[in-house]
Amino acid sequence: MSNTRYSELGGFLRSRRERIRPEEVGIAPGPRRRVPGLRRDEVAVLAGASVEYYTELERGAGSQPSDQMLAALARALRLSRDERDHLYRLANRPIPHRSGTASHVHPAMLDLLTRIDGTPAMVCTDLHTVLVQNSLAIAMLGDLSAHHGSAASFIYRWFTDPAARQTYPQEDLAPQSRSFVADLRAAVGRRSPGDAEATELVDELLRRSPEFQALWADQDVEVRRDERKRIVHPTVGLLDLNCLSLFSEDGRQRLLWFTPRAGTDTAEKLALLTVVGTQAMQTGPVR
């Protein structure tokens, strides 16, 4: 990248940082703030970067940021789609696909995710690629946004990697498989005919998974809106949950949140999980 481009990138990041009020991203403003908007260290924490690295970016120095870092910065700074695209151009990176791991998440959906407290929640695409999770969702499920390529889709991992099913009770596996496939068919139908991303995913699953092939041939279609989900967590045990969805206007993204089922001890276990945090949970296969 040229020095001019680095300088423009740093200036743009600084301008976006200064316009955000701390409370908009779940940060207590405090009585003694000397800068408008967010501090550099707060943006770094929100984006999962070091303070030194982010500071270098704002100063127009350092190395070219990766696609993953740009996506994280766009979410931390609540950029609109046009602003996100501009950020990628300044960094001399291609604009990401609409449903990849670097997909733009609407600021309003991110804001809602930030405000959901005390229950696991996350945003994923219609092809079941997780884009962002709150801290309790990471504690419960592991960091599901860490996968890349075909494996970024949980449906792909479900049918190609046995580890993806380890935290589900055995009797729930077949219903989950049918539900995933019916939901995927609905997603493919909503997209433009011949959509490259959806076609590639389906073709790869048909090639690699006889189970998927048989279920796909059944032609079942059903959007996953709400359902019961049971998850065996390695620390707190069985969690019996309601899984609810809020969809974007085009149906390509959904906000998922999990609530304890009435008459179970799951509420107490989720409260314990907030204390346990992410320390006892490695990057996990669950969703």
TrEMBL record:
Record-linked SMART domains: HTH_XRE (SM00530)
Pfam families: HTH_31 (PF13560), MLTR_LBD (PF17765)
Superkingdom in the source lineage: Bacteria
InterPro entries listed in its UniProt record: Cro/C1-type_HTH, Lambda_DNA-bd_dom_sf, MLTR_LBD
GO MF: DNA binding
Residues of the HTH cro/C1-type domain: 37-84
Keywords carried by this UniProt record: DNA-binding
PANTHER family assigned to the protein according to its UniProt record, in alphabetical order: BLL4672 PROTEIN (PTHR35010:SF2), BLL4672 PROTEIN-RELATED (PTHR35010)
Name under which the protein is recorded: DNA-binding protein
Protein source organism: Streptomyces hygroscopicus
